[in-house]
Each structure stands twice: as C-alpha cells, then as structure tokens.
Amino acid sequence: MRGLLLAVCLAVFVGPVLADEKADPAKEKPEIPEAQTFSSDHTLRLNGQAIKYKTVASEIYLRDAKDEPTASIFSVAYVRDGVSDARQRPVTFVFNGGPGSASLWLHMGAFGPKQVITPSDATGVGAPPYTVRDNQNSLLDVTDLVFIDPVGTGYSRPLGDNDGKEFYGVNEDAESIAEFIRIWITENGRWNSPKYLAGESYGTTRAAALTEKLQGGWNGIGLNGVILVSAILDFQNARFAPGNDSAHISFFPSEAAIAWYHGKVDKTKWNGDFDAFVNAARTYAIDTLAPALIRGNTLTAQEEAEIANQMSAYLGVSAEWVRQAKLRIDPTRFRKELLRREGYSIGRFDGRYKGVDSEGTSDSPENDPSGYGMDTAYVAAINDYLTRELKIDFTRPYKVLTGEPGSQWNWSLDEGGWPAYVNVTPWLGKGMRENPQMKVLLASGWYDLATPFFGAEMALFKNGVVLDRVQFDYYDAGHMMYLSEAEGAKLSNDVRAFIRDGQ
Q1: Is residue 23 part of a domain?
Q2: By residue range, what is the domain housing residue 437?
Q3: Is 441 helix (H, G, I), strand (E, B) or coil?
Q4: Rounded CA gap, 93 and 177, in Å?
Q5: Of 349, 369, 389, which residue sits at a domain end?
Q6: Runs of H (alpha helix) within 262-289
Q7: Which of 102, 145, 253, 466 has the fewest Cβ atoms within 10 angstroms?
C-alpha cells in the first residue's frame, strides 16, 4: 500500500515537472520590459531669446511582422514649446557613426542644448571635472532635434531572441533608423514638418543610405536636406588596399594641409595663402599624382625622383622617404613620420593634435592623440547629463563606442557577389534628382585623416549628385571641427543658414 501511495505521489509531482520541461523553451524566451520615457521641461537662452523646450528621452521599439519587439532604439528629442503650426517647424534627426558609435559627439559637442568644452588649441582635456555649459551653438532656434543611438550603441539594444546582427549592416542599419523615424514622426504628429538628416563620419554613410530608404518608395518620407559632417560616402577613397590608389589621391590634400599647420611647408612660396596651397594640392593630386600612381613601376627613376621631390614640398617629409614608399603615403605612417624628429606623432581624427609615444622608431603611432585628447570629457558629460540632469535610471551602461556592431557589420550593398567598395553616393544623387528641393551640406575639417575632405569631394563630384544644390563648408580643424570653439560656432551658423534657406 505504501508503495502504491509513493507511486501516486511520484506521479503527482513528476508529471507536472515533465510537462513544465516541455514548456521550458517558451518560458526561457527573454522577457521584454515596457519601453520607458523620461520627460522634462527646460529653457535655453540662445541668440538673445529664451527658448522653452521639452526634452523627451525615450525608447522606441521596432517590431517584426508578428508585432513582436525586435529592438529598442533610444533617442533624446528636443522639441520647442509654443509652436502653433508644426508644418513650419523643421525637425532634424541626428546621429554619429562608427559603425558602433552613439550620438554623444554631435549631441554634447555641436548641436544639443548642452556643450562640453574642450581646448580649442588641440591640447588634451586632462582629468575631471569638465566644463559643461548651455550651448550657444545649439540649433534649437531653427529646428527641433532628435539624437538617435542606433541598435548596439548608447542605451539601444536588440530585444527578445535577436542578437543584433539583424541590424548590423549598411542596409540593415539604414532600414532600422528609417523605421524609427517613421514611428517618431507618427507618434509626434510631424509627417508634414520639414525634415533634415545630420550625420557625422559613418553617420554620413547612414544619411545617404537613408535618402533611399525614406524617399525611395511609395510610402516615402520626403527630405528637405541632408547635413554631412566629415563625410565618408565612397569607401574606395579611404581604404588602403593593395592596388587601390584612390585612397592615396584622396588623402594627399589633407596630409598637405596638416604639414602646413605644423610649419613643415615653405609658406613663403604661397605668400602665406593656405587656400591657394590647398587648391594646388588638390590639382596636384589629380593631375600629377594620380597618373604617376597608375603608371607604377613604368616610371623612370628620374621621373619617380622628380615626383618624390614635389610631394616632399607639399607634405613636409623627406623625398627619400616618399620614394621608398613608392609615392604611396599611408596616413598612419605619415602621422608618425611628420614630427618624428620633434618626438611627436599626430592625430588621426585631427592632425593638429600631438602625442608622445614610448619610442620613436616605429612606423605607426601608439594611439590617436586626437582621440584620447578629448574622449574622457565627452563620456563623462553624456553620462552625467543623462543620469543626473535627465534622471534616466537604466541600470545598463551607455555604450559610447563599441566594436560589437562594427565587427559584425554587413558591408554588402547587393552587388551580386562581385567584389566592390561600399559607395552610397549614388543613393544621395538619386534622392536629389527625384526630389528637386532636397539640398546637401558638406562640412569638412582640413586636418581630418579619418574621412578626408577631398575624398568626400571626389564622391560628390560624380555619382549623379546635383552639385548646384550642394553647399561646401570647410573648417580650420579636424574630423570633429566643433572641438574648436570658433569652428564650432562657424559650423552651427553654416547649418543654421542651410536650414533656414531650405524653408
């Protein structure tokens, strides 16, 4: 009898366990929390006027065909109060690059209502506390602003069973941001507002791709303008692969500009006229350097020596070093070579910055002094601002710049399996031709060795871009021209005028 009772008990307790085990897969499905929103009201005194605005830091969930959440995209939106007609108030969607970077750089350095201050003379920010103040360069007087962190950056993340790969790629990323924009303008009643995109670095690649994703179909979202800050559009102009000479051509004028900045060029030859010098470097790159690189080893020793001497005069490095490099100046090696005898390497993002390596014989710098010279201030500023001022209480970290998206990035543009460099410029050109009112602003720093100004120009000069509607602006700084107070103000004024002209 006791055996029977035991068997019954086992049946009672074991049966349900077995049933639960079969249901485990469903129970193990990651729990998806509710999207969160943090709102607050603020006032910014800008250009003599008090601008009242609402700050909305929020998560927007992307969903699949079954209406299941697939990803959370975090953004911080600034919307001016007291606007009676939203059709007259532009909204600008802003993002940085990477891929794998959050939007803190443009947010806290250029266009947002708060600004972290860095030395304008390209020296390092040092240790905290850092100065954060009301941003007199903010664009809130002319446009609402939505700073977007793509999936895998900032507080944005994949949800459910998704691991992020569904969003890591040129097309995948653009499609997710396009969907975010569609949801945002729907929830905020802004379908008929003027719309702008503003991207920096890979963010310009994203912006060009977005022109196709937003405007390219029957459910299109029209754009008034695209703002490209430190653009990379055609990656052939920035990839130093064997046999690809386009990159050497596109970087040459930037290397020359940096040599001028550090006093390695005979400025008297140009009567101290930097613009004339840079224009000459552009011309030399196309008319002399490009044909020489194409000829390769068919150049005679005399021809090679003559060109090496000419390049030396532009770049401030020895003709012998240029000749040994076969006229192909890798920017990483250039960063080490230019000031080697003074004991410095120079920055990648901004060639004005100087760093000291542990030794001077290597062919490349230990690190990028224009990166570590400012990043701690930005990271501190965004984390302090989001958590202390906006009261965001997420327990997960704010991912500033992570390699996860970039290491898994799908660079294919559906080229049918043929090898190809990513080039999104044709999408930008198509968008301009199909939308006769869409304009483009290209903002470039002279001393940028990450996304050189001439490479961006080369991309825009072809690919079907309507040049009459492209505004070219240049800055006496590098990749992040707003690190300089004066150049940051100029950038803001240029963009402000661009938006006003688009109305």
Answers
A1: no
A2: 37-236+375-501
A3: strand
A4: 10
A5: 369
A6: 274-284
A7: 466
